[in-house]
Amino acid sequence: MKSDILLTVLGLAQFISGLRVVKRLLSTARGTRLQLVMSADLDEAEHLSVIIPVLNESHRLPSCLQGLRTIGREVSEILVVDGGSCDGTQDLVLSYQQRDPRIRLLDASPIPQGWNGKVWGLHIGLRHVEPTSSWVLTLDADVRPSPWLVCSLLAHMHRTGLTACSLATRQEIDGLGQALLHPALLTTLVYRFGIPGYATRSISAIQANGQCFLVRRETLESCGGFACVRDSVCEDITLARELAASGHQIGFYEAEDLISVRMYEDWRDTWRNWPRSLPMHDRFSGWQTLSGWLEIALVQAAPLPLFLMLLCTARRNRWLLLLNAFFTAMRIGVLYGTSRAYSRRPWSYWLSPLCDLPVAFKVGISAMQHHYIWRGRILIRGGKR
């Protein structure tokens, strides 16, 4: 009897959370993607500055800088802001600086008390941006931009009238373990926020990706610049929410082959580091952190094992079996949908739903953490030491 009551309560919780997820997926299913624009009629006086915060990026940065060098006059300067690298990153940047005068190396060390290291780098970069720059594009060191990335972004911003947007980058994964884990982590974002392809002012619906974030300079400075997210461990989403709270629409779009990224070296690196920012927990999130985790746990992670368990049980709860069969089928559909986010997919990609349970557990634990270690530095939610 008690087990029947527990299963009924579980089913009702799944049903309520599932309604939210299904509604979200349906409402974002017809989003737009960033269109490839190879040339645009841009104002000669409109300049764009790129800011790349780095820390020990000597192996990742060359592809990013090489890609940026292929971009034409749309980019007026490329500011690489170093937070205290000890692996030759600074020498690498100086060698590229000799090949392209737009590239400049800035030293952002030491990082002050109360600042996330990456945000401090962005803050220093913004302070050194040319006075004539109208736009600021922040990139991570591991991204690989195409020659038409900036032109396509600016054309989109002019066409839509947006002042800020970011991109869902094409993901590069390698190895069976990473192909098994990475998609399960990525899917947590799809379930909680929907499919990329729209702009919104709703703080609860905001999606953002600091790997490629474009914002009009005056819009950024009107919100206090990067200082307004100094203590966030998910600075991209917090900045987007800050801008939305000020009344700005924030766009988030897929960009296909315009930009790609290899975020982590292997599955261990992925497991250790990505869940740090995935909870999207900050001063704006409130109850959304808990409700989002419940959606991951109840609608993404639980249905497959529950469906198999109920299928093998002699005394079946028919409606709960059908509910979890539906959610399992939906998970397979999402798996097919997210496949376009990857440049290549090892065969283990199709088994990634098997990782949903440990991923839900990991994201939940991470949401409750206050201390994180990132490349030897301790990050504290609400500050850095």
From TrEMBL:
Q: Does the keyword Ribosomal protein apply?
A: no
Q: Where is the Glycosyltransferase 2-like domain?
A: 49-221
- Can you tell which superkingdom this protein's organism belongs to? Bacteria
Q: Which GO terms describe its cellular component?
A: plasma membrane
A Pfam family matched by this chain, by name?
Glycos_transf_2
Mark the transmembrane ranges: 290-312, 319-337
Q: Which pathway does it take part in?
A: Carotenoid biosynthesis; staphyloxanthin biosynthesis; staphyloxanthin from farnesyl diphosphate: step 4/5
KW Transmembrane helix (keyword) present: yes
Give the molecular function GO annotations. glycosyltransferase activity
Q: Where in the cell is it found?
A: Cell membrane
Q: Which UniProt keywords apply?
A: Cell membrane, Glycosyltransferase, Membrane, Transferase, Transmembrane, Transmembrane helix
Stretches assigned to coiled coil: none
Any idea what job this protein has? Answer: Catalyzes the glycosylation of 4,4'-diaponeurosporenoate, i.e. the esterification of glucose at the C1'' position with the carboxyl group of 4,4'-diaponeurosporenic acid, to form glycosyl-4,4'-diaponeurosporenoate. This is a step in the biosynthesis of staphyloxanthin, an orange pigment present in most staphylococci strains.
Q: Which PANTHER family match?
A: GLYCOSYLTRANSFERASE, GLYCOSYLTRANSFERASE 2-LIKE DOMAIN-CONTAINING PROTEIN
Family per record: Belongs to the glycosyltransferase 2 family. CrtQ subfamily.
What name goes with this protein? 4,4'-diaponeurosporenoate glycosyltransferase
Species: Ktedonosporobacter rubrisoli
Q: What is the lineage of its organism?
A: Bacteria, Bacillati, Chloroflexota, Ktedonobacteria, Ktedonobacterales
